[in-house]
UniProtKB/TrEMBL annotation, chain A:
Organism listed in the record: Haloferax elongans ATCC BAA-1513
Domain ABC transporter: 19-266
SMART domains: AAA
Name recorded for this polypeptide: Probable branched-chain amino acid transport ATP-binding protein LivG
PANTHER family: CONSERVED COMPONENT OF ABC TRANSPORTER FOR NATURAL AMINO ACIDS, CONSERVED COMPONENT OF ABC TRANSPORTER FOR NATURAL AMINO ACIDS-RELATED
Keyword Nucleotide-binding: yes
From TrEMBL, chain B:
Native source species: Haloferax elongans ATCC BAA-1513
Annotated protein name in UniProt: Branched-chain amino acid ABC transporter permease
Entries under PANTHER family matching the protein: HIGH-AFFINITY BRANCHED-CHAIN AMINO ACID TRANSPORT PROTEIN BRAE, HIGH-AFFINITY BRANCHED-CHAIN AMINO ACID TRANSPORT SYSTEM PERMEASE
Transmembrane feature ranges: 20-39, 45-64, 71-92, 104-123, 132-150, 170-194, 230-252, 264-290, 302-326
Lineage top rank: taxon: Archaea
Keyword NAD: no
Annotated keywords: Cell membrane, Membrane, Transmembrane, Transmembrane helix
Region (Disordered): 351-380
GO cellular component: plasma membrane
UniProt keyword Nucleotidyltransferase present: no
InterPro entries: ABC_transp_permease (IPR001851), LivM-like (IPR043428)
Length: 269, 380
């Protein structure tokens, strides 16, 4: 797997990988969705992940974040083996993801929805609500302040009292990004952050991701919108038929014959 | 202060809620007038108050599970029965256990037993999709009923347990007044407890789980722990209601553990407004009003002359009421209104923002397909 001279896929043995997978495999019945995937995400990068439909991007996300159990292989966050951890435990290790089609939080305002992010909160256990109420108050105030600042920064502070159910798809994606950021993650996995988002808002999202990245936030982003991801991410990992086809700069990816083949030529042998 | 905000937020801003509270006030006033006019026996009315209180406790318990966390529990009657039988077996001198202990031990046993059963049923089901708890709880309800019915040497089976002592007999009140006061106190304490844990980060995570459990997991919330806590808290509240009922009715038998009891509580929660504590209480009152009130329909001359036994049709009335609510007020009579944010952390401006939220809520209700036509019609 890690005999790097022969390995043709992703670039391994990076200096400081915040996320690392080794030989991840997952099959659904006879269909191999993820086939021996080993990747590394260097700290401080925005890494893109592309591939034709059915290439196994979402499955890989689910394996990394723990929503699927891998048939084989392991996942490391900050060099810690998280392979046997549940999704919330992986989140505590610093690996936080968003979803391709976020459900709207029924009966919750944007303010409330934002406050779910930080954690673990003292007030999330029952006893402190009665016996250390002051700590709960202090934390809640700080979290409220952080939520308001982030919404302001993402230029959606006017939405704070809106019910989550009233948001447009694009606004929801922004709130999701802001909320995911409140968890203070080491790496953020974004699943199609601009799918179904109008171009203006998509540009805003791109700008915010870039700003957060300049402050040191690492991203791994699945995206179908080629101009968006080619402009934003470097390096880019290309998946095809459950395998890593290649990894490289946007330019290398754009001109690689195998990538063109995968997207245009279909999956034939 | 808080009363003033309540008046301001509810009675001034929300006309529908104003009408609901006005109706409730009129009905209460009529009942009191009825007592003074000698039409309604005070003993009877106090017994009804105690029943409403007990149902309200059950609804509050189910509201924690279904309303807060989205857990589908079809064994409300079973947890209620566990509480009632714990109290009856320990306190009644002629129960099969024949211990005749002080009622406080009955309540403690109810809490412990229901918590244990909730944990046992939660361990295998709460990690799975929500439907598994629904199925398992259906089974649990029948299992507990059949055990109580058939294990006569422990539970006295279908002959039931009588001779359960009344509570606080030393109080200088009639026994009806005593039980009614006790349930009011129990209800108030439970209500305050639940409100505190609901308007908090804890309640917020539960509401997130209810909408999108995967999202909660992705944000690092151990959803299994939260669901287990909600399930246990709700079940314990139901068992307390059961223990209280044993001391209210002074007799208990397995016929009350039928699924119909569970069904009534679900109706109460849905009628009142899923996720809303005050809704659960009001929903319970409405269900009891229909259940008990329909007994007297035959006494009304006009209906009596129809030559029709109307009382057994009470389920029909409940059904019609549900349809009306679903049509005209989809979120229940008093849907949840508060933001689940720790109250003492909200800023000075919170009153203003709460007002804004409340008016937003009104807009939303108008926007929904069901609420739109009726509200619009009344405004014109």
């Amino acid at each position: 797997m890690s005999n790097d001279g022969v390995y043709e896929g992703a670039h391994l043995d990076k200096d400081d990988p915040v996320l690392k997978t080794r030989g991840l495999e997952k099959a659904f019945g006879g269909l191999v969705a993820t086939d021996d995937v080993s990747i590394e995400i260097e700290r401080g990068t925005i890494t893109g992940m592309i591939g034709p439909n059915g290439a196994g991007k979402s499955t890989l996300f689910n394996l990394i974040s723990g929503f699927y159990e891998a048939d084989a292989g392991s996942v490391f966050v900050n060099q810690t083996d998280v392979s046997d951890m549940t999704p919330p435990e992986r989140a505590h290790e610093g690996l936080v993801r968003t979803f391709q089609t976020p459900r709207r939080l029924e009966g919750m305002s944007v303010r409330e929805a934002m406050l779910v992010g930080p954690g673990p909160q003292t007030g999330e256990s029952i006893f402190p609500l009665f016996f250390s109420a002051d700590d709960v108050t202090r934390e809640e105030r700080a979290n409220l302040e952080q939520a308001e600042e982030l919404l302001e920064r993402f230029e959606i502070s006017h939405l704070i009292d809106q019910p989550s159910t009233d948001l447009s798809g694009g606004q929801l994606k922004l709130v999701e990004l802001a909320r995911a950021f409140t968890t203070n993650p080491d790496i953020l996995l974004l699943d199609e952050p601009v799918a179904g988002v109008n171009p203006t808002l998509a540009n805003d999202i791109k700008r915010f991701i870039r700003e957060l990245n300049e402050e040191g936030q690492t991203f791994l982003i699945i995206e179908h919108d080629m101009p968006f991801i080619m402009d934003l991410a470097d390096p880019i990992i290309v998946l095809d038929q459950g395998r890593v086809l290649m990894e490289g700069s946007p330019k290398e990816v754009r001109t690689d014959d195998r990538v063109i083949e995968a997207y245009l030529g279909g999956a034939g042998p | 202060m808080s009363v003033a905000t309540w008046v301001n937020d509810t009675l001034v801003r929300d006309p529908t809620e104003r009408r609901i509270f006005a109706t409730l006030a009129i009905i209460t006033a009529l009942l009191v007038v009825g007592v003074f006019a000698g039409v309604i026996g005070p003993r009877f009315l106090l017994f009804q108050v105690a029943l409403v209180g007990m149902y309200a406790l059950l609804s509050l318990g189910l509201n924690v599970q279904w309303g807060y966390a989205g857990l589908i529990n079809f064994s409300v009657a079973a947890f209620w029965g566990l509480g009632a039988y714990s109290a009856a077996l320990l306190t009644a001198p002629n129960s099969p256990l024949g211990m005749g202990l002080h009622p406080i031990f009955g309540f403690l046993a109810a809490i412990v037993v229901s918590a244990l059963v909730a944990i046992l049923i939660g361990i295998p089901t709460l990690r799975l999709r929500e439907d598994y708890l629904a199925i398992a709880s259906l089974g649990l309800a029948e299992v507990i009923r059949l055990i109580i019915l058939n294990e006569r040497q422990w539970t006295a089976g279908s002959s039931g347990i009588s001779g359960i002592p009344s509570l606080l007999e030393w109080l200088p009140l009639t026994s009806a007044a005593t039980t009614a006061s006790i349930v009011v106190v129990l209800l108030a304490l439970t209500y305050l407890f639940l409100r505190r844990i609901h308007r908090s980060p804890w309640g917020r995570v539960l509401r997130t789980i209810r909408s999108d459990e995967d999202l909660a997991k992705a944000l690092g919330k151990d959803t299994y722990r939260f669901k287990m806590q909600a399930f246990v808290v709700g079940s314990v509240v139901m068992a307390i209601a059961g223990a209280f009922y044993a001391h209210l009715n002074l007799y208990i038998d397995p016929s009350d553990l039928v699924p119909l009891t569970t069904f009534y509580i679900w109706i109460a929660v849905i009628l009142g407004g899923t996720g809303s504590n005050r809704g659960a209480v009001v929903g319970a009152a409405v269900v009891i009003a229909i259940r008990e009130g329909s007994r007297f329909l035959n006494d009304i001359a006009f209906i009596g002359n129809l030559g029709l036994d109307v009382a057994p049709l009470r389920l029909l009335f409940v059904g019609i009421l549900i349809i009306l609510i679903m049509r005209y007020r989809q979120d229940g009579l008093l849907p949840p209104k508060d933001e689940l944010i720790w109250p003492s952390a909200q800023k000075e401006s919170s009153a203003a923002s709460r007002g804004a939220a409340a008016s937003d809520g009104g807009v939303v209700t108008d926007g929904t397909t069901s609420g739109g036509p009726s509200d619009g019609g009344e405004n014109q």
